[in-house]
Amino acid sequence: MKRILIIAAILVVVIGFGVSYIPADILRPGIERALERSLGRRVEVGDVYISPLSGLGFKLEDVIIHEDPRAGMEPFAYVQSLEAHLRPLSLLRRRLEFSSLRLNEASINVVKTDGGPWNFQFLLSGAEAGLAAEPVRTFPAIKMRGGRVNFKFGDTTSVVYFSDADLDVSPSNDGSLELRFSGAPARTDRSAQSFGHFFVRGTSTPSPAGQKFDMRVELEPSAVEEVARLFDRGGFALHGVVALEAQLSGTSSRLDVSGRLQLTDVHRSDLPPQQGSWRWDYQGTLDLRGEKLELASAAAVPNAPMALRFRASELLSTPHWDAAADFHQVPVSTLLNATRHLGVTLPEKSSADGSVSGSVRYSDPDGLAGRVEMRDASIVLADGPALRAASVSIAIDRQAITLEPSTVRIGESEAAELEGSYAFDPPGGWAKITTRGLNVAEMRAFGLTPIPLLQQMQQGTWRGSVECRWQPAESNASPNRGGTGADIAGNGGANATIFDWSGEYELQNARIAVDGLSDPVRIQSASVSLNGRRVSVNRLRAKAGAIAFTGDYRWEPGSIRPHKFHILVPEADLAELRNVLGPTLVRGGGFLARALGLGTAAAPEWLTARRADGTVSIETLTAGDLKVHLDTAHLLWDGELLRINDVAAHMDQTTLAGDLSVDLSGRAPNYRFEGKLQDVAYKGGRVDFEGSVAARGNGPDLLDTVHGEGTLRGLGIAFSADADFRSVASGFELVAAEGGPHWKLTGLEVIQGSETYSGRGGTQPDGRLLLELASRGRQFRYTGTLAAVATQP
Question: Is 713 exposed, middle or buried (0-12, 13-18, 19+ CB in 10 A)?
Fold first, then answer.
């Protein structure tokens, strides 16, 4: 008996499998009519197979479920495979009815009609579209797995759809439906999708006002930027995770909504994640017919510090939305932390106190708008002093945030007026500072890029008004040539952002370190003008060491030599001048290297980069007992080469004119002068020199390296009582030697009385001068010191 039962079971299974693959196209018309009665719309079925193993029913392929005519002409669904299970009792009534339908690999179109209702409302309401001959409709349970849900608005298909969609619709005897849905929201205009799944669970119950829904909605943790793109294709440059849960109840035209939104690790796309989370409890209404959603904070207490509002329209067709935040004495520190989460770059040690009140709104077409006020604010940026203000108003208009003129206090007694604006698209902004007197050290409090010239001030005060504008640079290459941050204007180097300053201010009692000078420059007073990246300093009164000077200075970054200046020195001592210029003239190095002259010290960066063009005048330059007046000199500085052209100087009646070059590439400078020295008083007459002089070193050892050559001419030179030269002309060579300079005279020509003498001369080892002359066969020798000369026939 047992063996017979096993054989029978095997036969049933085999017959079942065989029958399931036997076409039953003869049943197609009846199956189509049964489906049309259940769904209230026309149905087309492709192939029909009997499917006894999964229950009494059929497997249908290539099924088209047409649309209710009120919702359009395109079919409601395309189903690749549909499993239809029969209701057994319907066979006793000789009426084919289905208890459940399972849709596999289906594509469903959810349509909002021009009249307002959605096509699924026609499906659920029991209305029969053009099938009045079938008065009774029994709605089957419907399941869909791995399908796609599209949205249409009239004849327009939305870019928003659901993929990987699962749907369960379970009807009850009282006419209510249990609904379950899950799917991944996506957009047709984007190829890559990374949304989380969207879940809906609830019931639909008939009521006099229409189908009443009671549902719970959840969005599993998803990427913030992807969810934002559901509403705005451009999205936001923010990363993070968002999760949503909501409870909906009511009719399709008014669903009451309450729930919670959770944001985690929100940060700008180009910055690392920020740890922390933010929660928003909300309530509001949803109008499916009008595609409108309105949400607001579910405040637990009256006058909550922050309330949020959100509105959206045309949710699935062309989404538009706006959000607003109302602040009521929110701590400034809270907002400061929020801006960090959103990627706003702030100094690491920034802190803030005070409160913020006002309202800010954002909409997808218009951007940001609103106005807030900070009261009793105290802000510390980086390691600077605190900025304090009783009231600061900030206006937000579209893509710009504007700080209205506000008085801020720094320290105990200093104040300034601050205003500015920042634009998001295109990015950039401006800030303006006005003060009647502010310590330069307090500028750190504003957190701005340093003001040209002020950035290098070690102390001092300034007053005036300056404005800074900034925008991202098109290239990281700096437009400045030859300037470095160590130069007096401080505009060199490459920046990712271009800062342009403009305005005027006055400096008083300031100190600034200048590379190449042994002591900081002490500025008693100066007037500074900023124009873009240009800096002009006028009416300058200052000191370098013990040397006082006046003049003007300009920084012109677009020129070959961006440093331009004119300096007038009333009085200077040569030793003091040499001491002030010590870092420029003498290179460092170890003691042995200096003593033995080993190697060459590398030139500092500031020296190789320096490019300057200016004029210098020294009314009185004292060198021991000598007093020289430098009327003018044109200075051209190109790295390690310094040229002082058009030198014009005088001492009593003696004048000096020519060009001086200084080579700074070695441990000590190399000097070379080419020019004229005229009207030198010598033994009752005057001597003019023309030629060149070279020397190397610094200080007293400079004279030990002198070498010169050229020509000389003299008038009225009395060598002795019986040797009175009317004129003298000669070539000369001057060489430094032990015991004093050595002179060599060549091509010497002397006129005495009516006689002309020619010959040569030179300094002897004992320091005496020897002249050897001849005229008409007669030889003459004149010897003596340079100060007193004797003759020998």
Answer: middle
The reported pLDDT for the residue numbered 567 is 96
Radius of gyration, CA atoms only, the chain: 48
CB atoms within 10 A of CB 326: 20
Tell me, what's the pLDDT at 425? Answer: 72
Work out whether strand 769-775 and strand 641-651 pair parallel, antiparallel, or are unpaired.
unpaired
CA angle 535, 536, 542 (to 5 degrees): 115
Q: For residues 387 and 403, is the Cβ–Cβ distance under 8 A? A: no
The vertex-496 CA angle with 494 and 500, nearest 5°, equals 80
Q: How far is CA 318 from CA 151, 235, 273, 312, 313, in A?
A: 11, 14, 31, 10, 8
CA gap 405, 369 in Å, rounded: 19
Q: Which of 153, 73, 83, 144 is nearest to 108 (CA)?
A: 144
Cβ atoms of 70 and 41 closer than 8 Å: no
Is-above-0.70 flag for pTM? Answer: no
Q: How far apart are CA 575 and CA 622, in angstroms?
A: 9
Q: Who contacts 386 (Cβ-Cβ below 8 Å, separation ≥6)?
A: 378, 379, 380, 410, 445
C-beta separation of 430 from 467 below 8 A = yes
- What DSSP designation does 23 have? B
Q: Give dist(CA 376, CA 395) in Å, integer.
A: 18
Cis preceding linkage at 700, omega within 30: no
Is residue 403 within 8 A of residue 394, CB to CB? The reply is yes
Give the pairing type, strands 238-251 and 670-682: unpaired
Residue 294: closest CA among 311, 308, 313: 311
pLDDT given at position 480: 38
- pLDDT number for residue 492: 41
Instruction: Convert 267-327 into a string of H (helix), E (strand) and C (coil).
Output: EECCCCCCCCEEEEEEEEEEECCCCEEEEEECCCCCCCCEEEEEEEECCCCCCEEEEEEEE
Query: What's the pLDDT at 5?
Result: 41
Domain boundary assignment for the chain: 21-171, 300-307+318-446, 605-792
Closest CA to 379 of 447, 438, 295: 447
Strand 98-112 to 141-153 pairing: parallel
Q: How far apart are CA 254 and CA 553, in angstroms?
A: 73
Instruction: Give whole-number Cα distances, 547 to 457, 465, 564, 565, 669, in Å.
Output: 19, 31, 20, 17, 22
Give the separation between CA 417 and CA 557, rounded to whole angstroms: 29
**Torsion sign over Cα 79, 84, 90, 96:** positive
| Beta strand pairing call for 351-363 and 43-44 | unpaired
Return d(Cα 779, Cα 758) in angstroms, integer. Answer: 10
Q: Which two tokens stand for residue 581?
A: 């210029």
Mean pLDDT in order along the chain per 10 residues (793 residues):
44 44 73 85 88 73 88 88 81 74 89 74 54 54 89 77 88 82 81 72 83 87 66 57 86 87 66 62 85 79 73 74 84 72 57 86 79 87 78 84 88 85 80 89 72 80 89 51 38 57 92 91 94 90 95 92 96 92 76 50 87 95 91 95 95 93 90 94 90 87 88 86 84 86 91 89 84 86 64 42
> Tokens standing for 114?
């021009």
User: How far out from the chain centre does Cα 711 lie?
Assistant: 64
| Dihedral sign from CA coordinates of 44, 46, 49, 52 | negative
**What tokens does 248 get?**
């909906």
Phi/psi of residue 389, nearest 5 degrees = -150, 135
Give the count of beta carbons closer than 10 Å to the beta carbon of residue 602. 12
Contact 295, 310 (CB under 8 A): yes
